[in-house]
């Protein structure tokens, strides 16, 4: 009779059917009971996974430890846009907003920065147009802003002749 095939801990399996089964619960309960038998260092291998080098109270197959890590990780949010990590509800609300429809603060800042830059480019273009009427660079810059819808609300409501560049 051959050895039993190795199966990773029930906590680390990704079955085709994502719903827990009675067998998975039974395995998790058995792992918890094995972990319960080794609450302190005793010089033996891990009672949960039988590996050496660690024991049940620190085992990555111990369902209780995995549940605690998962619960702790749920209080951490990382922004996909800028990489900011919020570790409290207050930080998360400040950066991400109150609901899923809100824009994160980093995107609002980026939009404001783009609008400021577009306004600066437009002002420079208008100044260049006045100082060097034959230079096409001013028209190219303003054309770029128009093509990329970067005129900004301020520029749309103000005629190009009324922009002060002083």
What does this structure look like?
- This protein is mostly helical and 166 residues long.
- It has 2 domains: 10-73, no CATH class; 105-162.
- It has helices at 22-36, 63-73, 89-96, 105-131, 137-147, 152-156, and strands spanning 77-78, 85-86.
- A two-stranded antiparallel sheet has the order 1-2.
- A hairpin with a 6-residue loop joins strand 1 (77-78) and strand 2 (85-86).
- Helix 4 (105-131) runs antiparallel to helix 5.
- It is rod-shaped.
SSE blueprint and pairings:
Elements: H1 22-36, H2 63-73, E1 77-78, E2 85-86, H3 89-96, H4 105-131, H5 137-147, H6 152-156
Antiparallel strand pairs: 1-2
Short description, anyone?
This protein has 166 residues and is mostly helical. It contains six helices and two strands, in the order ααββαααα. Strand 1 and strand 2 form a beta hairpin.
**Helix fraction bin:** 40-55%
Q: What percentage of amino acids are in beta strands?
A: under 5%
SS element count, helices: 6
> Strand pairing plus helix content: what structural class?
mainly alpha
Shape: rod-shaped
From the N-terminal CA to the C-terminal CA, the straight-line distance is 91 Å
Which strands sit side by side, in order, in the main sheet? 1-2
Number of strands: 2
> Which value, in Å, is the CA radius of gyration?
30 Å
Mean pLDDT reading:
80
Quaternary state of the chains: single chain
What is the count of structural domains? 2
The low-confidence runs, each spanning 5 or more residues with pLDDT under 50, are 153-166
Order of helices and strands: HHEEHHHH
Q: What can be said about the biggest beta sheet?
A: 2 strands, antiparallel
């Amino acid at each position: 009779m051959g050895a039993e095939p190795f199966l990773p801990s029930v906590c680390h399996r990704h079955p085709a059917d994502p719903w827990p089964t009675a067998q998975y619960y039974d395995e998790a309960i058995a792992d918890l009971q094995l972990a319960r038998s080794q609450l302190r260092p005793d010089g033996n291998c891990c009672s949960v996974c039988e590996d050496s080098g660690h024991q049940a109270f620190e085992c990555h197959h111990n369902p209780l430890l995995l549940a605690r890590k998962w619960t702790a990780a749920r209080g951490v949010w990382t922004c996909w846009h800028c990489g900011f990590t919020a570790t409290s509800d207050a930080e998360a609300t400040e950066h991400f907003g109150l609901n899923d429809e809100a824009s994160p603060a980093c995107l609002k800042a980026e939009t404001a920065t783009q609008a400021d830059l577009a306004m600066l480019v437009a002002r420079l273009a208008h100044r260049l147009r006045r100082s060097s009427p034959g230079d096409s660079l001013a028209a190219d810059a303003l054309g770029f802003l128009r093509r990329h819808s970067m005129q900004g609300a301020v520029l749309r409501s103000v005629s190009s002749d009324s922009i002060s560049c002083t």
